[in-house]
Amino acid sequence: MASVAAVRAGFRAAERELKSRVSGQQQLGPFRRISTRARKTAFLAAIPALSYLGYEAHKKVSFATTVYALDKADEVIERADYLYSCGETEKLYQLLLQYKDSDDAEFLWRLARASRDLALVPNVAADQKKQLTYEAFDYAKKALEKNEACFAAHKWYAICLSDVGDYEGVKVKIGNSYIIKDHLERAIELNPKDATSIHILGYWCFAFAELPWYQRKVAAVIFASPPTATYEEALAYFLKAEDVDPNFYSKNLLMLGKTYMMLKDQDKALLWLHKARDYPAITEEDKQVHKEALDLLKKLGG
């Protein structure tokens, strides 16, 4: 979080300057450098001189408080990212839930992700899954409102909007497709090195490449030019994601295998499906990917 570090550094520099100024005043005395007439005026009026000293003290306390708050925010985010890397979904969700009313997009998009991950846990009740899905979307939407320049907010808004569409029917889901694509492209524009945004755009292409005929018919009714994509386009994004960050995500490996299957390239399909099968299964999604890769390998005789 370079931006937070930069802000903190700025506050600390200002605090050092403030300490120096306050220290100088204490050594000289609050009235040492002003004339006798000015001292008398200040004594009679009192408020201007005392207000200035009070303002300096207030600034000093404010700087210290702000720096502490930034340090605390850093600690929470580092803790959250550690829990995410360990697959501790429930603990992560409970940690971030304390910051659901935060104005910081960095907390909110992580909470959207945690809510969504919790919804994907096996055996979660259907009503709870739906509640968590909509909750995730609300947090992602709020993150985007708080910081439009946050690439992760755009990414998770796109993901969560797609998830909500599963509950609102084919027409709504397809109707949201252009919005989803726009936010993914914006996320990539803001951070070209984020492999997951590139992967998801590939998944978007794959989904429209394999869209069933009846859903294509619905899309044609909604749009004069309904969204379309090819497996070749999907493959290009999946490969680009892998190039940006090799072996970063089990599902990207799986989707490469599935895309090569659709393109009738069995050798490459087997290569990527084996990689997906052998990927360490940490999260629930990793475990689902592992199972699907095994099933497809059996189907291909590999």
From TrEMBL:
It is found in: Cytoplasm, Cytoskeleton. Gene3D superfamilies: Tetratricopeptide repeat domain (1.25.40.10). InterPro entries: RMD1-3_a_helical_rpt, TPR-like_helical_dom_sf. Keywords: Cytoplasm, Cytoskeleton, Repeat, TPR repeat. GO terms for molecular function: microtubule binding. It comes from the Eukaryota. Pfam families: RMD1-3. One of its GO terms (cellular component) is mitochondrion. Interacts with microtubules. Belongs to the RMDN family. This is Regulator of microtubule dynamics protein 1. The lineage of its organism: Eukaryota, Metazoa, Chordata, Craniata, Vertebrata.
